[in-house]
Amino acid sequence: MKTYSSLRVERTIVAGFLSLIVIGTLLIWAFNLEGEHSIAVVDALFTATSAVCVTGLTVVDTGKDLTLLSQWVVLVLIQLGGLGVMTAATTLLLLFRQKIGIRQRLLFAGGLGLDTPAGAIKLLILILKMTVAIEVAGAVPLFIAFVRDYNPARALYLALFHSISAFCNAGFSPFSTGLQGYAHTFLVPATIMLLIILGGAGFLVLLGIARYMRRGEPLTPHCHLVIKVTGILIIGGAFLFLISDWNGAFRGLSPTLKVWNALFQSVTPRTAGFDTIRTANFTALGVFVTCLLMIIGASPGSTGGGVKTTTLGLLAYSALCEMRGRNNIVYANRNISFNNVRRALSLSLLYVSTVLLSIVLLSFTETAPFHTLIFEAFSAMGTVGLSLGITSSLSTMGKIILIMLMFWGRVGILTFMYVVITRETRDNVNYAATNIPVG
């Protein structure tokens, strides 16, 4: 049963994201009112939602169809959406030197999935320092790569834009073809991959790794599980892409570049959305593997979406313990509570059910091939941003469906359902147990 305080946190998070989307929509629309840059309100809403929810799906060309002011609005929305509404709000209070009360500390801690506000401000400052340091460090090699083709001012802008977009797992790019022009290079893809992995790991995991490296503090089971599942997904995904598209999407590349681009393609579907190889060029198996990675997504407390790596890990270990006949689910010498597993199961069921329902609705509103609608729905719900090329041609209703999926994917479908359905009650009634056969 959800407590009153936790419900308040979740309602504040949902309201915060909605408010940010509305403000972003108005700004983008206002900065593109006249001339060749004018866009419809629904397109401004789609762009703002995609930016706040760090998705990267676009119905307009970011670099060509949006004014420079609108591009900066998009970048700010990406940064705020990546940090999280409560983190961004608490940061603003700090900047204006306002007192951070216990309620604000609770909301900030709840936004990161913490149970207690103890040390919240110290943690916030660490997160901000880490974010700035990583994004600035990421912009340096990107600037070195871009300055070869653009003037220094433009190269600096592109470097900052891509660094922030990659760390926030957003996938937005001022380039019309994304990073496809860098498929034969190493510096840009390597930097983007590292930023994606760091942003997708989650702030608590990054802090845990930093403490382990500096002080030798042991990694928490959460950190251990995230690192393990992330490594398996990256290596396993790259292997599957090499099998599916060695002579497909990777045709014409040297063996080294095939492995390199397969590695990039394994990293980016987990909520980032950048591409060095056009997604539509992949075989059916390659597209299917991409969908699987998009479903899983990043890790809790990160800048990404999806059902999360820990959810997959918990379900996998739960199944393994069941097959071994164990009564308890044990990981890293710790017993996993039943409530933890139940939440993972509920999240997975709601996530998949929502995507399936949206695919059915899209099949009624759109005339595009069915497999492209499936891919688009998974990309939106996973806040990924990859597309088979139909996003801009969707009907208004189709865009609205994807807008809802992007929003649910970022705030968390389980969090949203708690806000809508759960009643604020402390009643606790115990009923007689029963057994229902399964399997």
- Euclidean distance between termini CA atoms: 28 Å
Radius of gyration: 21 Å
SS elements, strand count: 2
Number of helices: 18
Give the strand content.
under 5%
Oligomeric state of shown chains: single chain
In helices, the fraction of residues equals 55-70%
Return the average pLDDT rounded to an integer: 85
Question: How would you describe the overall organization of this protein?
Answer:
This protein is an all-alpha fold. Helix content is 64%, strand content 1%. It has 18 helices and two strands. It has a two-stranded antiparallel sheet with strand order 1-2. A hairpin with a 2-residue loop joins strand 1 (329-331) and strand 2 (334-336). The longest helix is centred in the last third of the chain and has 28 residues, at 338-365. The radius of gyration is 21 Å and the shape is globular. The chain starts with a helix and ends in an 18-residue tail after the last helix.
Key phrases:
mainly alpha, 18 helices, 439 residues
